Amino acid sequence: MTNYNQTYETLFELAEILGKQSDYKEILRVVSTKTSTMFNSDITSIQMINPHSHDSYKTVMKKETKIDKEQYSVVQSIIIGWVMLNKKAILLPDLKNDERFKENLFNNFPIVSAMCVP
Q: How many whole angstroms separate alpha carbon 102 and alpha carbon 104?
């Protein structure tokens, strides 16, 4: 099976699981776990933001993740800010060299790639 087919299969499986859930905490846990598996990521977070006040009111992260939360928070805030300003998703396979951000902005951070959807 190709990687493309595996991704679709995982998405369908995720949709089926979510369709059976009513507990939002469990939904967030399932989404973060499946996303981490699909993208083989070290860190997966889901941040729910109030669209009117722009306040963050829920963040979910992989439990076993050990990170510098301050550094992660800075990068996350910059990327979320870009997504909110531009009102579209962003995929950053090479965060440090992406032309949408100021040169050398992310050089002191250990994060290599990121993805964010509104």
A: 6
